[in-house]
Amino acid sequence: MTIQISKYGSLLVSRPAGHDAYLSAKAYLLNDSLDKIELDFSGVEVMTPSWLDEFLTPLKKEYGNKVELKFIENPTVQASLATISASEGK
């Protein structure tokens, strides 16, 4: 299963929007029988750590190592991922 993150917009900046995106993915795209969940970040222009935290953190809690990231070359995506990773270690 591949989730095109850009389907939630190209400017992903708020916690409420990230939470809504996660709930939408959970309701319509995700199920327990998935072997792999690929998050495709192509087409995302701006992403903040707050949006990503609301989307990725619960996704990783539920699906763990099944979550894979693709096309994370965008500097704001990279910075947001680094911030989320740093806060996980606290």
UniProtKB/TrEMBL annotation:
Organism: Candidatus Gottesmanbacteria bacterium RIFCSPHIGHO2_02_FULL_39_11
Superkingdom per UniProt: Bacteria
Pfam families per the UniProt record, alphabetical: DUF4325 (PF14213)
Domain called DUF4325: residue spans: 34-72
Name of this protein: DUF4325 domain-containing protein
InterPro entries (alphabetical): DUF4325
